[in-house]
Amino acid sequence: MKVCFLLIFAIAVTTCTPEKKEASEKVSNLPEELEKTLLTVDFNGLQPYLNKTDNKTYIVNFWATWCKPCVEELPYFEQAGKKYRDQNVEVLLVSLDFPNQVEKQLKPFIEKNKLNSQVILLNDPDQNNWISKVDSSWTGAIPATLIYNNKKRTFYETSFTLETLENEINNFLKPLP
Amino acid sequence: MKTSNLFSLFLVFALFASFGLKTSESGYKVGDAAKDFSLKNTDGKMVSLSQYKESKGFIIVFTCNTCPYSVAYEDRIIELDKKYKSKGYPVIAINPNNPAKSKGDSYDEMVIRAKKKGFTFPYLIDEGQKVYPVYGALKTPHVYLLNKENKVLKVAYIGAIDNNYSDAAAVTERYVEKAVDALLNKKTIDPNTTKAIGCGIKK
Rounded to two decimals, what is the model's pTM? Predict the structure, then answer.
């Protein structure tokens, strides 16, 4: 059983890795040191991150440095990312900062707050085209968060507290009845 | 008997469930009649839609001082007003944010912003946040195009201004312009609903 689990995990890891590499190639126009921490994608580039089928639970938070409620809840995502890492939970922070604010705002913000979670910059101004593809219920306001694993998928157009976030994560980690 | 009881219980639940869904998506849909309001403009005067006897409708824009998307659209909102006021569809901008939660969106800051940008349209404060929930606005900017039909204001379009928030020059679809043009030419509005990224309204 354990071997089987390890095997699945190994497959999941190996299938994920090339995907990440592919996405990071798209940022060749960004400075080198940024490449390590920040990917820039359009919605097509983001989609694989919203539809992974491995055994992890993914928390995808849509935010921006200028969005006050987003910044307020960011520490909770960071804390949850650390706390639940051993339970196969991964946090992804999708920034909607304007591309011309990357150097002035986003990059300094990531450095100053020493963000541990992966940050991806979504640069796709054709919003009407992709908002519904993230979730049909999303009206387009941020903060917004998608939590999913291979059994369950829920979208939240709301702010979280550490407590409400952990409650939701626990719901996802609970074995289904 | 027992099964029918269970069934009616189920019906009651289903009914509640559907009501529950309705309340979570409250606000106007295209085709709904829109309510008038009376809100304070940056010149200190109260503005309501009924004061505009000659207008054919309104471009209602929920927007604010502080949201970068709103700021990115300011010039385009001015252009909309300049283009369509004379054709009977003036812009009415409403700031829905609670100033206690977003200091840059206070009435005084609105007055400063309206002057600085030379707004050609009313910029109203939704004092007590009573109007935006009726419309169902959730973010800024969020457009509700209203059209007068037999003296009743009906919602004709809800959504984004165009399809590129970050670069006005790269816009390929001007949703609001297309919608007003369709009304002026008595054509069907397509699309009549779009989605836009925006800043959640500060409650």
Answer: 0.80
